[in-house]
Amino acid sequence: MDDIDVPPFFICPISLEIMKDPVTVSTGITYDRESIEKWLFSGKNTTCPVTKQVISDCELTPNHTLRRLIQSWCMLNASHGIERIPTPKPPISKVQIIKLLNDAKSPQQQIKCLKSLQSIASENATNKRCIESSGAVDFLASMVSNHDYSAVEGSLQYEFESMRPTDEALGILYNLQLSEASLHNLLGENGDFIVSLTRVMQRGSYNSRAYAVLLLKSMVEVADPMQLTNLRPELFIELTGVLHDQISKQASKTCLQLLADICPWGRNRIKAAEAGVHGAGVAIVSKKILRVSQVASERAVRILLSISKFCGTTMVLQEMLQLGVVAKLCLVLQMDCGFKTKEKAREVLKLHARVWKSSPCVPSTLLSSYPA
């Protein structure tokens, strides 16, 4: 593109590039749709970047007049290397989503509806918010909760076909990046949907189990203490299964973070220990230390600190010894792996020095690093 002056009101205040799909927010400022959606929905900001005023209504109004001016200007300056900006596809409406949901009566129509929702949600953040506000969350949750696993057993052909709706419903629920209000509604008062996710982790496909863990992590972040205290032992058993099966790196990592979040509440650390969750979890975490990156090492040591603080039963401490975790933490103190990582490793070792310091499981070459 030649050196040409672009009219300043064609420029998005966030991206500082020519707007392709200008939209106006409630404060009267116009932004490019992609940039303001990312600011509001992915960044979870609530203020206008220019005026700093609170955006009370996240409705984005297309600025058609400005878009046409930009398109005309681009065409007039094509000889200078300015590319033509195509007319953007209009976002989905609430009426269209509601009709889609109402038409999903039969299993075949439900699968068609899921595919449509997945496609619509993938287009932009505005569509995701429209889907969320149109009652689709309840529809998707019911697809997960009402799935009959026993009906598909014994028929491989039907199993693959019938598992797909659960996979897609969970995938959409997670990728919608639900608001706190929707996550609270999913949790409900008695945690029925957590029971449904536990069932998915027990009997679902690998995809379903991974999405169940990811979605559960989002729900736990907004849950109240009573809901976290009342988690059932079956959940911890299934989380152990996810860790053991190593479905994916993201699922394992999320599973460990989830356990670190819920173990401090009530009798959860006992439930976790009885489920054998820490043997599987500690083994996976310890492998990350000094093998992937400094960031991975710091995160792994942080998770080990949470486990040793809140779930430090005799069984767990012995597992950490036998799996070489204690020796690995001593090695961290000898290596160049960042101040924060070393401080956390030192804290873990000090916390259980009475049990670990004199153990023959720790090589004598590393015992010299053990903090006093």
Explain this structure to me?
- With 372 residues, the protein is mostly helical.
- The protein has three domains: 8-80, Zinc/RING finger domain, C3HC4 (zinc finger) (Herpes Virus-1); 92-148 and 163-226, Leucine-rich Repeat Variant, CATH 1.25.10; 229-371, Leucine-rich Repeat Variant, CATH 1.25.10.
- Helices cover 62% and strands 2% of the residues.
- It is built from 21 helices and three strands.
- Strands 2-1-3 form a three-stranded antiparallel sheet.
- The chain is globular, with a radius of gyration of 26 Å.
- It starts with 21 loop residues before the first strand and ends in a 5-residue tail after the last helix.
Total of helices: 21
H-E order: EEHEHHHHHHHHHHHHHHHHHHHH
The CATH class of the largest domain: Mainly Alpha
Order of strands, main sheet, comes to: 2-1-3
SS-based class:
mainly alpha
- Termini distance? 65 Å
Percentage of helical residues? 55-70%
In short:
With 372 residues, the chain is an all-alpha fold. The protein is 62% helix and 2% strand. A three-stranded antiparallel beta sheet has the order 2-1-3.
What is the topology?
Elements: E1 22-24, E2 30-32, H1 33-42, E3 61-62, H2 64-76, H3 94-102, H4 107-121, H5 125-133, H6 136-145, H7 156-175, H8 180-187, H9 192-203, H10 206-220, H11 225-229, H12 233-245, H13 249-262, H14 268-274, H15 277-288, H16 294-310, H17 314-322, H18 325-334, H19 339-351, H20 353-356, H21 364-367
Antiparallel strand pairs: 1-2, 1-3
Helix pairs in contact: 4-7, 6-7, 7-10, 9-10, 9-12, 10-13, 12-13, 12-14, 12-15, 13-16, 15-16, 16-19, 18-19
